[in-house]
User: Fold these one by one.
Assistant:
Number 1:
Amino acid sequence: MPIPSEEVPVAFNPCRVGNHYNPRKNYLFYIGVGNGPEIVRYRLRFCRAHALLVQEQLSEFEVNPDDGTLSGGDTATSHCFSCGEPVGHGNAQVFVTGYPPDEERKDYWLRIHSDCTLPDPLSDQWEVKSA
């Protein structure tokens, strides 16, 4: 049965940013936010266009797989990713692993204040938290 012209097909698991047309595979990002022994983990799905925006937002926090350095250098982790203010010890750390389709995974590490939340679209505001 053909799809009526006013309906636009979407991916089975739509992009986190919205229920829009996505004919390709989703990009997956796994987020872990931890402060001490407590870590909250969740997964986010994005279409290619929105995933590229997320990758751009995280670019200075990308971990080099060969030597573990950050692309933005040591200064990348000296400020809160959310509010931009300096962070000290005891604040939350954020670990992000991105899985672009048909590419190698990308890892990111950043810091935020314990009372700050990750900005959209990386927050877990609409996601179910899982261990």
Number 2:
Amino acid sequence: MDLGISAEQAANAVKNLHKALYRCFNKDYSELQKVAVPEDLKENEHFFFEIPDEYNTEFIRLVTVGCTMKQACEILKETYRL
């Protein structure tokens, strides 16, 4: 068995577990679910996970005023040079 493949699979499993726990217990993600267009959330939630947690509030505000998740992520990355 290739150790590199096993390590990659383990890393992906941990990453997916983290996302699942985040979806269940994170207040910011719960707020995002309330304001996001359901289709945008389903297809583009990965943009929310691309930004550091300290920018979650700004991300949610951008989505609230009508930005897509991709637009919100791009704005934050450009503004804060993430």
Number 3:
Amino acid sequence: MRLLKFLFIAVVFTVLALVYIHLQVQIYDLGYKGELKKTELQKQNDFNGYLNDKILRLTSANHLGVKLLKDNSRMQFLDGHHIVTLQNPALNALSLQGKGKGPNGHRQNLLAGIFSLRSQAEAGSIK
């Protein structure tokens, strides 16, 4: 009876030890897989930065200027014949009303001419 009880306890203890070792091996395996994924993600991130840098260089003003000014380039600057001018009827009507007249055509008084806002305020640097 004692031998049977000892074998039972030994078998239970061995099974528990094997389960514990298996769980520890799985923990280390998951840790290694996480490190591999981390290094792969870092490689992908570096490659993404490299591609982003290449795209920004290709679209930069310097690159486009060098490409445009090459001798064998088919691109060229536009001349004065290809420029379109647009007429704004509202601006033409205001310019025809004359200087010193308000938007409704009436003459402005002296104080309204002095204190009128002619341009938008801009910030300047302090010397």
